[in-house]
Amino acid sequence: AGAGREDGSGEGGTVAWRELLAETEQRLRDAGFDRYEVDARRIVEQASGHEGADFHLGLSEPATVSGVAALDAMVERRLSGEPLQYVVGRWGFRQLDLMIDGRVLIPRPETEVVAGRAVDELSRLIADGVAGSPATAVDLGTGSGAIGLSLAFEVRRAEVWLTDVSADAATVARANLAGLGRAAVGVQVVEGSWFDALPTDRRGRLDLVVSNPPYVRDDEVLPADVTDWEPRQALVPGPTGFEAYEVLVPGAAEWLAPHGALVLECAPDQVPGLIERGAAARFAEVESFEDLAGRPRGIIARHPG
Fold this sequence. Notes:
alpha/beta, elongated
């Protein structure tokens, strides 16, 4: 990967980050990556430490030995097909910068919409004066912690529980919690299957339950960069794709307070089935919402209050 570099880019090397950016773009373009410019920038940002407004200013600086080594390693990983988010090890989600690796799903824009609806619901319950003091929210199957930590960061009066059956995922969520700053107060990360992970004294007292559970059917064909790299247990719950919802919807009806709300992400074709399940669980209101592309992406089910 270092071919053509004058001296291997030592601490006083002569190769600038600008040249390495161009080389990285060329390598990714030649390999057939459609978004090679985006990929190259993110990799060079991570390797150089120059991000955002500082990125273009830093391109004139000479690269260091450690920076070039990090760059080459990330490019090789990307060329192998590993998703960019795992390669750079972090990804933006709403207002957060999350640590991401192969132990957890990659946070997606669709889930940012789900998190936004959860923030809106919890904020509404607080504004209406019906939420507990503090308001209590649970993110079931939290993965990286994206939804639950967004709730804690954006709704400061909340106690937030993050649960995951995967010990690996819980470790990643705790690492992201450690970077949350003052908003981390009142956040708990616990291991366990869905509601089983929660203290029993929270039953019937939760203000909000939110989840982006596994919902892919067992026979559904997914892109190779998903099936080859992302944790299958976080994608596929079983043959029908509804297995997690069979626990989450009736469970939420028991664990939520009389005024509480349930927010779930799902596939577009699962919305009708989830609305039926919400009605069967005696939720007073069940409505769907769309993602940024205008596709049905989830439901909100509310207790009568």
